[in-house]
Amino acid sequence: MSFFSFGQSAEIDVVLTDAETRKKAEHKTEDGKKDKYFLFYDGETVSGKINVTLKNPRKRLEHQGIKIEFVGQIELYYDRGNHHEFVSLVKDLARPGELTQSQTFDFEFTHVEKPYETYTGQNVKLRYFLRATVSRRLNDISKEMDIVVHTLSTYPELNSSIKMEVGIEDCLHIEFEYNKSKYHLKDVIVGKIYFLLVRIKIKHMEIDIIKRETTGTGPSVYHENDTIAKYEIMDGAPVRGESIPIRLFLAGYEMTPTMRDINKKFSVRYYLNLVLIDEEERRYFKQQEITLWRKGDVVRKSMSSQATIGAQRFEGSASSESALEKEELREDCR
């Protein structure tokens, strides 16, 4: 509503063409609340209608034009005055004139490019929205409608396993292995930990999933770490030669796909952090980056079977390889 509207104003309502059938997705807002928004993918058409309803039917509404915009925008919280738009499309719905009654305007943005996933983080927000505007001399009447965009990926052709060692000379030597380095958001992390040399008393071991959000460039770079999950592997002292399996289900955690250098403004990366704590409360840890990706609801059978075969192959080969490695290390320790 406008104080300078001379007795006349209007309400704007944005209605999507397929509002009754289009899927909605939950998304966390800046204040931490979860809301549901219409879900779109890259390349999909965005269409609908704008309803402009006059508040006083007996008076006309003068305007300088009516338009609808589709905007993709990045906002850095430390620089809130500047909005970085990477998508900006405009459709003029009416030329300057006047409305004597409530009116509906159709719009369509065909095959809209939506290159990035919707994201709300600690220091940055990436959003897509429709903005309908009735332009006026003193003040505009506008209405925004947010949507959520998900980016889909295909099963990665190269998905090698991760092998790492954590060690303290002559005290501790641990090798851990994960079945792959790229996981979809509902995947399962399968791995094993081998204790090759244990001369300190370890009382606790866990794996953390850490999300690292990086914003800004050059000297104005901010890193924000957030522990998404903690998974206890062991509570008690291991012995040399022991092997502990890992199976961590990702579906229960709120995560996004890995986002690298989004419009040269921010990145979101994920790490597996192996943490060991000894009886004197000393902490030993090792981090390894993993790639997360989102797959569609419909997955080809060949794709899922490849994943199953890969996991079986890993479990079989890991046990045989580790046996050889242990034997070699035992000989070294003698």
UniProtKB/TrEMBL annotation:
Pfam families: Vps26 (PF03643). One of its GO terms (biological process) is intracellular protein transport. Gene3D superfamilies: 2.60.40.640. The keyword Cytoplasm does not apply. Keywords: Protein transport, Transport. Residues 323-334 have a biased composition (Basic and acidic residues). Residues 311-334 are annotated as: Disordered. InterPro entries: Arrestin-like_C (IPR014752), Vps26-related (IPR028934). Belongs to the VPS26 family. This is Vacuolar protein sorting-associated protein 26B. It comes from Oncorhynchus tshawytscha.
